[in-house]
Each structure stands twice: as structure tokens, then as C-alpha cells.
Protein 1
Amino acid sequence: MNLFACDQKIEHLNDDFYDGGENIPLTSNSPTHLFEIGAQAAQAGTIGVMAGQLGLISRYSRDYPDIPYLVKLNSKTGMVETSQRDPVSQAMWDIDDVFTLKENGINVVGIGYTIYLGSEYEHDMLTEAATLIRQAHENGLICVTWIYPRGQAVPDETDPQLISGAAGVAVCIGADFTKVNYPTEFIGKSRPESLAVAVEAAGRTGVICSGGGSLPPREFLQRLYDQVNISGARGSATGRNIHQKTTEEAVRMCAACHAIICAGASVEAAMAIFEGD
């Protein structure tokens, strides 16, 4: 799964899309930038899905019909801090809204949902996610969960045991893939080896790791290579390391990620793709 994550316009507001041109291309401020990347990558066969909220997809998808879409059903901003209230994010749409998109010819292939494990509201999110996953599977859609330990009961959001626990929760509610944050190290293990524990805990649910903040391309691709080849992850969910680039660079990064995830490419080969060699 090479998932192009485009749900951040709610999650991170505009912070990831505009900085006056200092590090982010000015074209990134328009949602069109995301769809131009997604369309070119889809035509090249180098992304599995483009994930975004239902409203975002409905506004642009008719102009970009070749993209396989994954509808993110819940989202929240980060404006309310955990110190104020434990995080909660419940669905803004129901499964019938997703089916309506499909019935109107939009290439929807799956749904996504975020769960904040350890929040006092986790039961509400788990229950809603489990129901939506069942309904989606009954109608032939794949399901991806974003599961993050977060809340006042969580002292360390990247604790490797908690990340492994989150991966195990994903398989228990039936997700096909789950996105988790890259954990810190277990004692005596490297970071990729620690993620491998989460991959094993997830069983038949594929673990896809968060792309995180923007990194230098080689560092990002090396990390992805390690996650796939050492950890056994089934891909990645990448936003900023793709869309905070020009369209041309972003499309080449999609191809580089695809080469590592789906074609067994080395970091050197993936870098050559990214650099256009």
C-alpha cells in the first residue's frame, strides 16, 4: 500500500501547505496541487490510494477520475490540546455518503478512520470504526485505520509497546491496513526491529508507517526501505514528504516509494527515480 495522505488540511490546518515559499512551493496552498500529484501518480500506477475527506474528494474528483480514492470519515484539528481535553474524532459522514459517491461514478475504493487509543473517548471511536469497517467490507471496500496512542493517560505516544498494541487493536476491529507512528526502540532492538514487533502483533492487518515531517529525500527513502525490508511493514502513508514538493518532484517521490514498497528497489535505485535519472 503506497497511500498518499491528503487529509492534513483539517488535521494540520494550513501549516503544511503555506510558509510564504520558504520551504513549501507556493502552488501547495491550493488543493489542486494534491490532485495534480495524485492524478499523475495514478496514471503511472505508483500510488495505491489517495486519502482525503469526503468533502475534499467530492469537490475535485470529477476533474481527476483516474485517482483511486480512500474516503477519510473522521478528522479533527490540533487546536484543542490534550491538556485541555482528551482527543476525540468521530465520523462526519456515514457509509451511505460514501456509497453515494461511488454510485455517482467516483472511483472510491476504501474508507479510513482515526482512533486515539488511550483517550477517554476511545470506546466511542473504536465502536464507530468497527461498525464502519464491517459496513465497508460488506460492500467491497478496503479499510485503513489511523491508530495513535494519545491522551492524558499516554505519557509517550511513540512507546514501542503501545505502538504494537495499536497494531493489535487494528486487526481486532478488522482493518485491512493500519497507519501507526514509527515507534522508538525497545531495549536491545533498533527502531526498525521495534516496528517489526508491531507488524507481528498486527497479524493479517498490514502495517503502514506514518511518513512524518519532511525529511531529506535520501533519509526518508532509507527509513522507508528499513520499514519495509527490516520491519516487514506493508507500505507507508505519506503526506508531507510528497506534497511539500513541486508537482514534478512529488510525482517522482511517489514513484520512488512505489519502487521500494512494491518492486523491491534499493535506496540507490529509488533515489535515481526521484532524481529523474
Note: The two ends are 25 Å apart (CA to CA).
Protein 2
Amino acid sequence: MSVGLMQRVCAGYRVPLFDTLAEKLPGGLSLYAGDPRPEEMIDQSQRVKKASYWHAENVHLFSGRFYLCIQRDVLTWLRQTDPQALIMEANMRYLHGKDAAAWMHRRGRPVIGWGLGTGSTGGVLLKQHLKLYDALITYSSSGKESYISAGFPEDRIFIACNAAAPRPTRPMPERLSDAFDGSPIVLYVGRLQPRKRLDLLMRACAAQPPELRPRLWIIGDGPIRGELEKTAESVYPQTEFFGALYGDELTAHFDRADLFCLPGTGGLALQQAMASALPLIAAEADGTQADLVRPGNGIQVTPGDEQELTEAITKMLSDPGKLRKMGEESFRIVREEINLEAMADVFARSVAYVQREGLRR
């Protein structure tokens, strides 16, 4: 069964997933994706090697909460590649999705939606939108529960925990077992945007007792980098900005850090940090964090709560020995449960399921 996969944009961090999935699908994978808006600064330097690629014609309409997207040549792509199953983002803002699903269903072929969950969306429009899909893939248990609450059949929902790092084949990075090598290093990796709340992280580090104040490493780029650098000068000069890093250079920084912190939205970098045996602090944002950040390997904090974030950092850095044990648990979870291969396996299983069970009509 040949499979088509529609994305608004093919971000570089998703390329390993798509290539891994292409290898697992006997009929191959055709990826359809276009360009982001310039201000999004999404890295697209990596290209798929195992999957075939079709560059989509993206039309971006409006912005913010009114944003909409149309991919104008989606039916041309479908006619040319003729997929037997289709995976597409389950996002009501992507107006071309309805046409793509209708094209597939007229030919008796299944459509799989891929999304975070319903979020705050509900009502008749959501129920109509979910009718486009014969199965759903979501990142988390909370995402699955939201789809069930919206009336989607539980047996047609698959959880593929968000991953960007493969199953570790190397040993854990070596760190001192019950001490820090100098000042502890708190690491953030991700895009530099207001919703990431890095201002909170700087203030939380500045509020630490003198003996616990860490070096704060910020890796990534984005529209507010200049603003954050100015904030760091006045709030927490121990902050270092590295820009966007990839591959072995990024892994080396993960391996040198002592604690990974994600104070705002997002979650993909958490799994990468776990592959380097890092304990975690993460805000309870879109629900994807809950399956990754557990009592044995980290702390979840309330979004926007500076005091709670400060206390979590203090608790973690006050006991280096316990911190290392939590890092070991992170490494175990990535090795045994949540990794790139496991995520691709869920996608492949969902395709096999809809092929076997047929359309949800």
C-alpha cells in the first residue's frame, strides 16, 4: 500500500521520522509539504532521502488566531502519486484537507488524521471535521481522551508519543555521580518565541541561592532573539546564546548539560534531552509533556508560574545525586519506550489497521 503524507511544512526535525516511516512501509511514502511564512523561521535545511517529495504550493491567509492555509495543488499531487492511504494534519485551519479527504473517499481509500487533540475547539464544526478521518494519530494520552470526548471511536485512535531522537545505541553520557563539574548547566533548546517563556526561565535562575545559580544555555533562533539577549544582560548575565545547532554539535551540548528546562509551550526537545540522560522541568502545555515528564525523571510546572518554576529548579539542583538518577530514568524511557522508531511503528500500524478495517463510514 503506497501512502501519502500531507504537511503544511516539512520542518527539519521531522525528516528522520518521515525517512524511518518510508522504510517501514512496503509501498513507500510520498511527502507533500510547502514553505512556511518567512517570519516563522522554520529550518528546512534537511530533505527526505527515503521518501519521495512533492513541493506544495502554500497560500497563507491572515495571521495569529485567524490564520488559514490552502495548498493549491493538493489534488494534482494526489492524482500523480495515487496513494492508497493518506495521512494528513488534523487541523481545521488547513482548508484543503476537506478536498483531499473527499478525493480519497470517492475512491474507497482511508484517511488518517494526525494531531495534538481537539484543544479548546468543540461543537458541530469539530464533529464535522473529525468525519474526514477513518483513524487518528495523536501525540499523547490527553490528546486521545480529547478525541474520545468529541465522539471519535476509541479503537481508531493511536498514540504516537512525540520523538525526534532514535533509540539510543550508545551508553549514557558520563557525568559526576553526586556533584557538578563547576556550576550546573541548565539547558533550553527550541525556537525563540514569546510563548516559550524564556524570560521566566532567566528570572527563575536569577532567583536561585548563590551556590546553586547555574549557567543558562539557550540553543535555538527565532524572532525575539535580540530582545532576549537584552533581557539576559539585565536579568541574568550567566545566560549564553548559541543560535541554532544540529547533529553532533547539538548532541555535545545536551551531553554537557545537567538539567533540561522547557518553561513554555512545545515538547519535542524533551525527548532529545532524555536521549542524553537529562532530567526535565517542563510546563504543562499541550499535553504531550505528560507521557515524557514523570515523577521519576522530572517535574511538570504550571505555565506562567515563576515561583513554581523557581522552586522546581532549586529542588532539582539541590541534590545532584538524585538528579543523576532522574537522568538515568529519562535515558531508560527513551531506550525502551519513546523514540523515533517507536513513533514510526505507530504510524505504520495505523496504516495497516485502516487497510484491514476499511473506511469508517
Note: The chain has two domains: 3-163+339-357, 185-336.
Protein 3
Amino acid sequence: MTRNNGKLTFTILSISLLTVMAGAAMAPALGVIRSHFADQSNLMVQLIVSLPALTIIVTNLFFPLLCRLMRTRTLAVLGLFMYVIFGAGAFFADNIWLVLLLRALLGVSVGMIMPLSTGLLAYYFPPEDQPRLMGLAAFMSQMGGVIATLLSGLLANINWNASFLVYLLGLPALVLVAVNLPNDRLQSGSPKMDRSSSLKRFAPSVIGMYLQMLLFFIFPTNFAITARANEALTGTDITLIMVGLDVIAAVIGVVFGWMMKNMGQSVKYMAPLTFMVGYALFAMGTETPLLLSGAFFVGLANGIGMPYLNTIASMKGGKDAATTVMPLMSAAMYLGQFTSPLIVSPTSEALGGGLAPYLVGVGIAILFLVQSYISSIKTKEYVD
């Protein structure tokens, strides 16, 4: 039964506001945290950002089992409660191993709520509403990144551990879910679909999501470093450019439903093409116009690619999306986030370093474009 009302929509979208904050929220505070744990290696400190991605992936693999054990509201409330406790709990820790343990458990909580943030939209709302709703989910996710980045940076100026208090933003969503979300039992996959046909059906979307995140995370892991070569820009200027990219992606989320309705199949190719243009501009130099225009195109790519891939996946999965394709999409997203520097950094070093990460980005964007073309026939039936 579809419960199509504003409260339910806003409640589900409030979860999307939180999911991007698992690792990215700590990025602005890493410098301060590194100073506090000066006796630890750089890798140990960097794990504060990257470790949640690993436990998110593992938890996603067990998500259908969690849905069999718990009903929707119970699972969401538990996940959000853990999100607040383990996320903000690091404020009270002064041991790097305890901090990392809490970060790993935070990833478990995000792994519990991430598939719900998009899967419940497919469960409660009809297919014709999916482009608009997935666009709004992308908007909320991007705005969560903007809010978390700014707030975490400000809190880090107070004390190294104050930035972890940003996870208290999960409290309003916890209240909304407890009050407004029905406690239904989600199906754990269609009995009519065997494993092989399921993988074949969802593989293009899952691979696309992995390539999307592999590409996007070239930007946050390299931009602040390479942009420092532009002496006309201060650290604040660079931060504002990075935040501006998230704002652009958020604005695209608002109009994404219109884009899907009026542009059809061409939307599929826009993310890889705009990634290609953005990284090509970055690779040309560090002059301010190149940095601004490159960030604009990468923002477009992220704003278009995320809701498009989730829209197609939700249409393929239907009411079962939360327990079939969405855990796979979430795992692919965080796998792309985690492996991006592992793939791009050594490849760019082999090419000579400097602006080479962006040349690697152009190459991966071409691969993404080819993958989009190959899967276009299979996707056509869902968007026409």
C-alpha cells in the first residue's frame, strides 16, 4: 500500500541528508586531528575518513538478512540511534584505536540506513515519481555534505574532537523516523528472480555507480592539494570552491525530475561527459578560471549521475529495491569512494604526478561513457 504524503517523503529524505557524512564530514578536521595524534602515522589518521566505507560495504551485504529480522521503522531507528551514539561518541575518545572502533561502528549504522534512504522511496511511491524523488534525495545528500563540511570545519577550530559532534544532526531524523515511518516488513527479494538473473539485471546500475564514485572522489582527494599552486587563492577560497561544487550538485537534484522527463536517454551520457570536461579543465592548469569551470562541470556530473543511477536502479528493483539492488548500489558507492585514491594515486604518480590525477579522471570518464553506451539498450525500457 502506497502512503503518498509529505510527512513520509520528508522523513525518508531526512535519512539522505545524513548518509554522505559518514566519512566526508571529517575531512576538514583531519589537519587538526593529525596534530593531536602526532605520534601516529598518516595512514592511521586517514582511516578516520576511509574506515567507515569498509564497514558500510560489509553491512550492505547483510542488509537483506537485517530486513528479515527487523521491520522498517525498527531497523531505521536502530541504525539512526547507532549513528548518533557512535558518530558523536568519538568526541569523548582520546585514543586513536577507540576513535577508529567508533568510526567502524558508525559505518555499520550507515550501512543499515543507506539502502533505506533510497529503497523506501521505491517501496512507498510509484515508478513515475522516482526521478523527482531520487533528485530530491540527491539534493538532500549534497546539502548534507555542504552542512557537514562547513560545520565540521568550524567545530574543529574549537577543539580537535569537537568536529565529531556534527553527527548529532542525526537526532532530528531519528525523531522523524520514530514518529512518521510505518513499521512494515520489507520483502527480501523476489522469489521469481534467481541470483544470476538478479545480478544480470542490476549489474549495469551497480557498475555505473562504482565508476561514478571512483570518478567523483578524484576531486576531494586531490583538489585542495593541486589548487595550492594558485597563489591567488587562499585556503578559504579553495574550501568555498569545493563547497560550491556540492551546491551545484544539490541544485541539479531539484530539477532532475524535469530533466528525466524532458531529456530521456540523453541524461545517461551527461555524467560521464561532464566529468570528462571537468577533469580535462583541471588537467590544463591551476589558473582560477580553469579551477572554477572545472569544479562547475564536476558538480554537474555528480548532481546528474547519482540520481540517474538510483532512479534506474529503483525502477528495476520496484518494491523490492530496498532489499535487492539498493544495498548493492550502496556497496558500489562506498567501494568507489574507498578505492579511488588506491587506483588513481599510483597511476598518476606513474604518469609524473602534478595534475596527472585529472588525466586519469579523463580516462576513467571515457570508460564510464563506454559502459553507459553498452548498457543503454537494457536501460531504455525503464526510462521510455
Note: The radius of gyration is 20 Å.
